[in-house]
Amino acid sequence: MKSVSDLSAVDGASVVVVGGGFGGLSTACYLAGAGADVTLLEKNEQLGGRASRLERDGFRFDMGPSWYLMPDVFEDFFGHFDRTPSDYYGLTRLDPHYRIFFKDGDSVDMVPDVEANKETFESYEPGAGEQFEKYLKKSEKNYEVGMEHFVYTDRTELSDFATWDVMKNARGLSLVGSMQDHVERYFSHPKLQQIMQYTLVFLGGAPNNTPALYNLMSHVDFNMGVYYPDGGLGGVVDAMVELGEELGVDFRVNAPATEIRGREGGFVVRTENQEFYSDYVVSDADYRHTEMDLLPEGKRQYDEDYWDTRTYAPSAYLLYLGVEGDVPNLEHHTLVLPTDWNDHFEKIFDDPAWPDDPAYYLCVPSKTDDDVAPDGHSNLFALVPIAAGLDDTPERREEYRNLVLDDIAEHTGEDLRDRIVFEESFCVNDFAERYNSTRGTALGLAHTLRQTALLRPPHHSEEVPGLYFTGSFTTPGIGVPMCLISGRLTAEEMAERVA
Questions:
Q1: pLDDT band at 341 (very low <50, low <70, confident <90, very high)
Q2: Which of 100, 140, 382, 454 could form a disulfide with 219 if both were Cys (CB 3.0 to 4.6 A apart)?
Q3: Is 60 exceeded by the pLDDT of residue 4?
């Protein structure tokens, strides 16, 4: 377990955490474990933030994140409190990890057996099997060094990178260039490039704007494995809430913060019908929403021009479906990819529009978990990454629903259209309304070359002493494991500044 900095300085302090996503839950646990008196306020009716659950007519959906990756991060988090994930939930390693349908009729499974994957790569391109092995070795090194020296260690100033420790460990890391440049050095076949880059969806980026360092995600994928936790990602939320309660966190749901104000010696956080007083505040809410909507104008670090010039991770068109019968052609995780996906990425980042030939993801947890659907039915959702801020109307959703269902039938062989017994969509407007999400982004700030490390907004307010931030807008960034680590970094920074 990676050691956490001394948090004892927060012992006895009172803290209000605004927002119950993974970043907020993590921060609350670290602070409460160090002796702070923590109250967490969640806007919605359930904890978990974007990891909410939709339960209806015998179906249960993870509404947001659905991949359990980087198990070492969860082990590290629970280990800090002398617990293990297995104290709260079990894990099933998926086999295959996922299936990919290419829209030219080809399909391929990525499996837990690295040697089998190596043979698959070789079948597409002579020498690609050996290149795959080299790529994973590079990815593993980047993961080990990157996590230790650039993820678990928060470097907030440029001078933090000009140290012997950083320079020594950064030698050989892929710190310059894009993922597209990096992958092209190993593979020529476009399908192999796509396989190595699909995880960028979890980082909210595109091959040409995501730093090459994130090739470390291939180590996560192929070497560490893809898992399903009991109860889905919602089961992990339950585990963190149970841990928080054991540590003394006071969780309040249906308590949207409406204002954060300083007062003598601390803060007052107002909800619609109550006031909470504390020494410190941590916001896991959308960073822009916190600054522009909850703080007085003179207490903001950034103005609207700053937020208008940020690159936001995609939003998503989501279609939650309960269907009669099985879906044998689909796996627990299935990707459907055009053979050329550049047009889709361009319609997310360069020329925002609803993609005509989308790349998308299908999740079928009923393949693994009998409890998520009634007998004789399948539970699945389709997720299409789309540009944040797109016009989201009922007419557009209906049009896109038909496009997606037609595409699934054509390219996976699973015609769902006459078997649907439950259906609900979620899109840009819903992300904005439910999560106060800027432009309806599903994830936060994208991991572009100009929005990585110290170029992301800080964990502490430079205008309001005692106000802190956690979650996907801060370092280390997007994704459930990164938000867990963000909670730790926020707690460490608070303890350092309080001491």
A1: confident
A2: 140
A3: yes
Structure tokens at 244: 């928080």
Domain ranges in the chain are: 8-91+230-310+452-498, 113-224
Residue 82 CB burial class (10 angstroms; 0-12, 13-18, ≥19): exposed
Mean pLDDT of 224-232: 97
CA–CA distance, 20 with 73 (Å, rounded to integer): 19
Read off the pLDDT of each residue in 445-468 and give the average, rounded to a whole number. Answer: 88
- The domain covering 8-91+230-310+452-498 belongs, at the CATH homologous superfamily level, to FAD/NAD(P)-binding domain (3.50.50.60)
153 Cβ neighbours under 8 A, 6+ residues apart? none
User: What pLDDT score was predicted for residue 369?
Assistant: 98
Give the tens place of pLDDT for each residue, 248-289. 999 999 999 999 999 878 999 999 999 999 999 999 999 999
Distance, first Cα to last Cα, the chain: 24
Pairing verdict, β 259-263 and 107-110: unpaired
Question: What's the predicted TM-score (pTM) here?
Answer: 0.94
The pLDDT of residue 166 is above 60: no
pLDDT surpasses 60 at 479: yes
- Measured at the CA of 459, the angle between CA 456 and CA 464, to 5 degrees, comes to 115
Q: What is the mean pLDDT of residues 227-245?
A: 98
Give pLDDT, residue 145.
Answer: 84
The label of the residue with tokens 């339960």 reads: 55
Secondary structure of the chain as H, E, C letters = CCCCCCCHHHCCCEEEEECCCHHHHHHHHHHHHCCCEEEEECCCCCCCHHHCEEEECCEEEECCCCCECCHHHHHHHHHCCCCCHHHCCCEEECCCCEEEEECCCCEEEECCCHHHHHHHHHHHCCCHHHHHHHHHHHHHHHHHHHHHHHHCCCCCCHHHHCCHHHHHHHCCCCCCCEHHHHHHCCCCCHHHHHHHHCCHHHHCCCCCCCEHHHHHHHHHHHHHCCEEECCHHHHHHHHHHHHHHHHCCEEECCCCCCEEEEECCEEEEECCCCEEEECEEEECCCHHHHHHHHCCHHHCCCCHHHHHCCCECCEEEEEEEEEECCCCCCCCEEEEECCCCHHHHHHHHCCCCCCCCCCEEEECHHHCCHHHCCCCEEEEEEEEEECCCCCCCHHHHHHHHHHHHHHHHHHHCCCCCCCEEEEEEECHHHHHHHHCCHHHCCCCECCCCCCCHHHCCCCECCCCCCEEECCCCCCCCCCHHHHHHHHHHHHHHHHHHHC
Q: Mean pLDDT lowest for which of 58-67, 166-175, 221-230, 338-347?
A: 166-175
